[in-house]
Amino acid sequence: NSTPVALCTLFFSAIVTPVMTYGQLEGLVNKWSLDLEDQEKYFLHHATQVNAWDRTLIENGEKITTLHGEVEKVKLDHKRLEQELDFILSQQKELEDLLTPLEEFVKDQSESTYLEHEDEEPRKTIENLNTFESPADTTDPLQQICKILNAHMDSLQWINENSGMLQRKVEEVTQVFEDHRRMELERSIRIAFD
């Protein structure tokens, strides 16, 4: 018959607690240190990439803000140009309304002469109106036509100047957008291959 003390001794002698030597402990610590260094390098590599992406996002945000401002300026210029065109159309309509009675009068006076010189007559009439100087009589149809033609020419000149500027702005904004898109594509390709 086994006594409880004998059973305990037998049980404890069957459980052997492994004893770790200093060399084994040092080997484990070295292995863990190397693993930690690898993880640190991995983390630093990704942290550097994230910082680069963050800088790129900030730069692109600033570019988008600038681009948005340029687009808003172009929209305002476009709106002004449309207003000027509307003004010119109204002036042209008024001019046509004033020219119609004059054309009928000229036609009634000398229909044959008018038809022979049809190509030269409007040009000469406009040249004469531009050099026409008389007291400002607002009821005189020629004075009204001259005034409308001058406003029409000023508006056309303004449109000509501003349409060139507007076209240049659109080209600049388009170029900035294309450059930005190309840089993003190149950056995406580089990141994909890193």
TrEMBL record:
Keyword terms, alphabetized: Acetylation, Coiled coil, Cytoplasm, Cytoskeleton, Disulfide bond, Glycoprotein, mRNA transport, Nuclear pore complex, Nucleus, Phosphoprotein, Protein transport, Repeat, Signal, Translocation, Transport
One Pfam family named in its UniProt record: Nsp1_C
Transmembrane segments: none
Compartment(s) where it occurs, according to its Swiss-Prot or TrEMBL record: Cytoplasm, Cytoskeleton, Microtubule organizing center, Centrosome; Cytoplasm, Cytoskeleton, Spindle pole; Nucleus, Nuclear pore complex
Signal peptide range: 1-21
Protein's UniProt keywords contain Coiled coil: yes
A GO term, aspect molecular function: phospholipid binding
Coiled coil: 64-98
The protein's role, per its UniProt record: Essential component of the nuclear pore complex. The N-terminal is probably involved in nucleocytoplasmic transport. The C-terminal is involved in protein-protein interaction probably via coiled-coil formation, promotes its association with centrosomes and may function in anchorage of p62 to the pore complex. Plays a role in mitotic cell cycle progression by regulating centrosome segregation, centriole maturation and spindle orientation. It might be involved in protein recruitment to the centrosome after nuclear breakdown.
Record protein name field: Nuclear pore glycoprotein p62
Biological source species: Crocuta crocuta (Spotted hyena)
Gene from which the chain derives: Nup62_0
